Amino acid sequence: MNIVHAWTFVFEDERWGMKVVLGALLHLVPFMAPGYLVGVARNVLHDQEQPLPDAGDFLQLLRDGVLASLALFVYFLPLSLFIIAFGQEGGPFEDWGQAGVVCNCAFLTSSRTFFIPLVVWLLVVLPYTVVVGLLLIWGIIGYADSGNPARLFQFWTLFKNPKSYLGGVLVTGLIGLLIGLLTMVLGTVAIITCIGPLVIVFFNNVAMGHLIGQTGRKILPQAQY
Asked: Pick from 52, 74, 78, 53: which is nearest to 149 by CA?
């Protein structure tokens, strides 16, 4: 996997300047951010010479973004229902929302309002989020390759050959996490220096899309859906 190329491929496009400005601005449009990620992944999977999407791809990117967002919603729905249930009156998350407002010794030493939600977050929310991230990477690979939206939800196919598939997806997920952390740092610097946080987010998104495309290109020849 070429991590450096995932960041630098943008500059190989003859019209990279216009595409970066246009792409950054389109990230303000709902669903376009995940759409760009899927679009780059598709172009890399299909060995497009210039993987960066163009203005003419707007409708396809919008469709991709809507479908990817729908998959994200579906995958996180069980966790959301779980948190809502625990947040009902009498549940361990009932007073969790006060954490940002009421943070005192009594709150911190209360097992009901602090320790139980913390344990649930560590044992349920965090692992669930990591797993969903990996399943989404796999789903995007399948959808970007085939154009079939059902592939976004066929998570069980990831485990048909875990030795071949799971390793690449795990590495991509870990690198994506590091890219996200780097983006947070660079985004803060961009806001302070007025460089343009949208451009930072754009580069993060297309880099992640490129990495997903690289992973898919490596493992899809072995994949069995």
From this structure: 74
For 87, the token pair is: 């947040």
Residue carrying the six token digits 């610097």: 189
Phi/psi at 50 (5° precision):
-120, 95
Q: pTM of the entire structure?
A: 0.79
Categorize the per-residue pLDDT at 109 as very low, low, confident or very high, splitting at 50, 70 and 90. very low
CB of 82 closer than 8 Å to CB of 124: yes
Domain residues for the domain of 146 are 3-91+124-222
Residues 160-182 pLDDT 10s: 766 666 666 777 777 766 666 66
Per-residue pLDDT tens digits for 89-108 = 555 555 544 444 444 444 44
Evaluate if residue 139 carries a pLDDT over 80: yes
Note whether residue 49 is domain-resident: yes
Single-letter residue type at 92: P
Residue 213, amino acid:
G
- Whether residue 32 is contained in a domain is answered as yes
> Within a domain: residue 171?
yes
- Show the 3-state SS of 124-159: HHHHHHHHHHHHHHHHHHHHHHHCCHHHHHCHHHHH
Instruction: Please give the pLDDT value at position 104.
Output: 44
Residue 177 host element (H or E)? helix 162-193
Q: Residue 46: which residues within 8 A CB-CB, separation 6 or more?
A: 145
CA angle 178, 191, 136 (to 5 degrees): 35
Q: How far apart are CA 134 and CA 169, in angstroms?
A: 6
